TrEMBL record:
SUPFAM superfamilies: Apolipoprotein A-I. It comes from Daucus carota subsp. sativus. Residues 98-137 are annotated as: Disordered. This is Uncharacterized protein. Residues 114-131 have a biased composition (Polar residues). It comes from the Eukaryota.
Length: 164
């Protein structure tokens, strides 16, 4: 967050330097003193230095105001971005919860289907076993009847042969 604020402040300084590209400063006075300069305090150099100081004060005041405005705007932007991020995070959490709930519901449905299929298969197997048992019993009864009939026929045939 500090990085964002410092980059915004740097941008404000850059904007200020673009807004005031050509400040009119008087040429620099050399460190050599001339006696004639001290005799005329209201000369060209004296008047120019006062104007430069006033321009510098005005520029400093405007720069300070612009920096304050820039910092306030940066704070507002950061606050807005934090609110947006928080809202998006809340939305993502809710979506994740909904997805997890949907996945759990689908898993439960799948488990119910598997259980239902297993129960259905078990019932079918039971029905088939019962049907097979009934068929086996019927076949056994028929075999017993057929054996009785054959035994009776053999008995009658033997008795006929013996009587003849």
């Amino acid at each position: 967050m500090a990085g964002v604020a410092s980059s915004i402040v740097k941008m404000e300084f850059l904007n200020l330097s673009k807004a005031y590209p050509h400040l009119t400063f008087q040429p620099k006075v050399s460190s050599v003193s001339f006696p004639s300069v001290s005799k005329y305090p209201k000369g060209r150099i004296g008047a120019g230095a006062g104007d430069v100081g006033q321009q510098f004060d005005e520029l400093a005041q405007k720069t300070g105001e612009n920096i304050k405005i820039g910092v306030e705007e940066a704070q507002n932007k950061v606050k807005n971005m934090n609110e947006k991020i928080e809202a998006e995070a809340d939305g993502m959490v809710k979506a994740a919860k909904e997805n997890a709930s949907n996945i759990a519901d689908k898993a439960k449905e799948g488990a119910d289907q598997v259980g239902s299929s297993a129960q259905s298969s078990q019932e079918k197997a039971g029905e088939q076993a019962s049907s097979l048992k009934d068929k086996t019993v019927d076949a056994a009864e028929k075999a017993v009847e057929a054996a009785k009939d054959n035994t009776e026929k053999i008995k009658e045939a033997v008795i006929e042969k013996l009587e003849s």
